[in-house]
Write a structure and sequence with these properties.
By secondary structure, the protein is mainly beta. It has a domain of about 80 residues. Helix content is about 5%, strand content about 35%. It is built from one helix and eight strands. The strands form two sheets. The protein has a five-stranded antiparallel β-sheet with strand order 5-6-1-7-8. A three-stranded antiparallel β-sheet has the order 2-3-4, with no helix packed on it. The longest helix has 6 residues. It is elongated and about 80 Å long. The chain starts with a strand and ends in a 34-residue tail after the last strand. The mean pLDDT is about 85.
């Protein structure tokens, strides 16, 4: 079977309203009915709020607040998300250099005010 592109969507609530649908409510107050077959489970990497893996094609048709930054592919054969994007932040520390032949530029020096 084909894999399904999904986005991790942070929701205020995801409530079952029937055997086949959820009512998804976002933090901005927007709501949409999402088929249960297009919700692939919770995103366990998110800590501060609830997030769920939802099929990208259904999100494009609904008026829900979501971001495409974190995406993954649902594999129906293994019932798992694959290829999730994880952001890695690296800190750049520039190399130290030894200044040579430095001449002070008086136009860049703050004037001293002796009145204080």
């Amino acid at each position: 079977m084909a894999k399904t592109l999904c986005y991790s969507v942070r929701l205020e609530s995801l409530r079952s309203i029937s055997d086949k649908a959820y009512l998804a409510k976002c933090f901005d107050g927007s709501e949409a009915i999402i088929p249960k077959s297009q919700v692939f489970g919770p995103d366990l990497d998110v800590q501060k709020s609830e997030a769920y893996w939802i099929a990208a094609w259904i999100l494009e048709k609904k008026d829900l607040q979501y971001s495409s930054k974190k995406q993954g592919w649902y594999n129906p054969d293994t019932h798992r998300m694959e290829g999730s994007i994880h952001t890695v932040i690296e800190r750049h520390i520039p190399d130290q250099i030894n200044p040579q032949n430095i001449q002070a530029d008086d136009s860049l020096t703050r004037p001293t005010d002796s009145s204080h």
